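Anyone? Bumping this.
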Amino acid sequence: MKLCRFQTAGQPPRLGVTLDDQTLLDLANAGVEDLETVLEKEDPLRFLESLVENTQSARRLTEVQLLAPVARQEVWAAGVTYLRSKSARVAESAFSGTAYDRVYEAERPELFFKALAEKVVGPGEPVGIRTDARWSVPEPELALVFNSQARLVGYTIGNDLSARDLEGENLLYLPQAKIYARSCALGPFLAVGASEAAARAWQVRLAVHRAGQVVFAGETEVGRLRRRFAELGEYLFRSQVFPHGVVLLTGTGIVPPDDFALAGGDLVEIHITGIGRLKNPVVRV
Ligand code: DO4
Ligand code: MG
């Protein structure tokens, strides 16, 4: 079952459930206005199924603008959770390589704040590369969506855009490498109801298009993620509260070669089986 936020001309954002590849059920007609209503249900999947059975207000997906599936939820991210990410970080860093080796093996994962909901870029909107960075990359990541009680409700697609030159120069520049205008994209769908075992079989694919050509393509599978979802969630909620729920990007397993950098005008396309496709053009911000 796939949930989404969407908008039609002049109307406030609403929630919908996709019925197939072309149609959407408008949940406003069932009185469901915000994401928390779904996230906080005892059984969100069953709740959505019952709405689908009892509501008749289908819209064509082509008639609506899909939005990022967050309204008030913070976005956090885990890092160095795939071997590929660890080796790339060690190679790019001037003098802090051991920090990445250590955190990959450590009991406590690397977790960092990524974005407020209002700053998250939705499907089709431009993602950003910093004007003071010369080595920016997309990071295609499975995103976990938790409710306020730390219950994993579903999954979406995330792009943790990053400036590798800033991070590599000094680990203390990590917030500047990670948190800047348009550096986080999410969406379009929030897949509800898949088990961790099912999600671990999903493929993650990245393609970067430039002037009509694919200039980088890569893929991995969620099963290569070193940490369990529950483990990431447990650390994220330690001494923390997320009254509206929270989204956690789980880290990247795809890193382009070192001579690749995103450029303004590129188009980033991320596909995760079980969820869908997130596409964003790139601008310098
Ligand atoms: O330590 C830097 C963050 C790494 C990251 O974002 C990732 O592995 O996805
Ligand atoms: Mg990342």
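Late reply, but here is one note on the structure posted above: The two ends are 35 Å apart (CA to CA).
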